[in-house]
Amino acid sequence: MNILIFGPNGSGKGTQGALLHDRFAITHIEAGVIFRKNISEGTELGRKARIYIEQGELVPDELTVPMVLNRLLEEDCKKGWLLDGFPRNITQAQALDKALAERGIKLDYVVEIVLERGVSKERIMGRRLCPRDNNHPNNIGIEAISPVMKDGQLCCRVCGANNLVTRPDDQDETAIDKRHDIYYDTATGTMAAVNYFRTGHRVIEVDGRPSVNEVFVILRDKLGA
Fold it and tell me: Looking at the annotation, which residues are catalytic?
């Protein structure tokens, strides 16, 4: 099973991706990891991408798409993959769709976790990171995963660790708005990419407002397992 997963920052997309990886035993691929791996290993594409990154410019699609495609062709993806964080705009969506078709790689599902912009922003600003494990979900704005108060301190709801921290960019409203401007753009941005896939592909929409487990159960059922 091959899946693209979309959702605004704060929608729980990464968490759902990890759960789908466990459920279906498919490789969870994050676009950012592909970039870092190519750059750290000094691949030809990585060396070219580094030049753009060091100059503060966006890496062009003619480098980005081949890096993603090369990753999808690796051995661990033969039993299925879930691609998270790419494409980010309609141009990338068109290029990826064409590249997959040329190589006979079937895209089975496109998943969109739907969440209003204001709710997404509140969730981002409410995130708190566990110093032991950043993957432990803690959010002061979501009752189901709210940190535990102990001796006057917020503690991780999973392991009990104290001194929860916030990521600086999670508290930067300007940075959050910029990310969301790209995602919610229906003309050329990420939502334009989602809408592009509505023609010719099965797009599954899931309301991102319920709890992590509730969203996963709905998503699992819609994927037919």
Answer: 13, 88, 127, 167, 179
